[in-house]
Design brief:
Elements (H helix, E strand, L loop, with lengths): L1 E7 L6 H29 L5 H11 L13 H23 L17 E4 L4 E4 L4 E4 L2 E4 L9 E9 L5 E8 L15 E3 L5 E5 L5 E2 L3 H4 L4
Antiparallel strand pairs: 1-7, 2-6, 3-4, 4-5, 6-7, 8-9, 9-10
Helix pairs in contact: 1-3, 2-3
């Protein structure tokens, strides 16, 4: 079973670094979209995501594209994965004759997130902190994380707040029936009754409004 845990980061000046990293992911996304469109115009073929990954790795060495160094290689791979999934969905919709459009450019200021897999981050759950690109960040620890963490997504909202999304893989425990019998439920409001099981006592409606009406 896959479960996602969401935590909000404490507001801090160091969070500007995460905003720069998200912007860098947005620039990389638009660059790859431009390559896709140009390649299609010239050869009427789609670019392979692995070719895009190799291309981005080479661009890191150029001063003009130094912003790509803001994020790790896994985050850049995730950008190409997103574009690949978007194009696959586009072609699937065309085959099924659904209204659709190819992936387009996005405003960098509105680009929302990037995803890391097993590298580029480290979690210190006991102290409610996470290290991303060797920078320490604190988050509101509202619960404990259960299961094996598969990915970490750094996401910002329209207000500029940043959230962490931990996608975890959890083992499903088998639930065994104790009796093997079935029971039916009837939902109604007859005589203030809420639920009427066929083998047990009726469950009355709480009637919160009537109880607190005088107050």
């Amino acid at each position: 079973m896959i479960k996602t845990y969401k935590f909000k980061l404490y507001a801090a000046k160091r969070n500007k670094k995460l905003h720069r990293q998200i912007n860098a992911a947005g620039l990389a996304y638009n660059h790859c979209i431009a390559l896709h469109k140009r390649y299609w115009q010239l050869y009427h073929k789609l670019l392979n995501k692995f070719a895009l990954q190799k291309h981005l790795t080479k661009l890191k060495k150029l001063e003009r594209f130094s912003y790509l160094k803001e994020i790790g290689s896994q985050a850049l791979q995730d950008v190409t994965d997103r574009i690949d999934r978007a194009y696959n969905l586009f072609w699937t919709n065309l085959d099924n004759k659904r209204k659709t459009a190819p992936p387009g450019f996005k405003k960098v200021c509105k680009y929302k997130s990037y995803t890391l897999k097993q590298a580029g981050w480290k979690l210190d759950e006991g102290h409610g902190t996470v290290y991303i690109a060797k920078q320490k960040y604190r988050y509101f620890k509202s619960r404990n994380i259960e299961g094996r963490i598969k990915t970490l997504t750094v996401k910002r909202d329209t207000l500029g707040d940043i959230y962490l999304y931990f996608v975890c893989e959890q083992k499903i425990t088998e639930v065994k029936l104790r009796t093997g019998k079935s029971v039916g439920f009837d939902f109604c409001f007859k005589d203030k009754m809420l639920v009427a099981p066929d083998e047990e006592n009726d469950i009355a409606a709480p009637s919160f409004f009537q109880k607190n009406q005088k107050a």
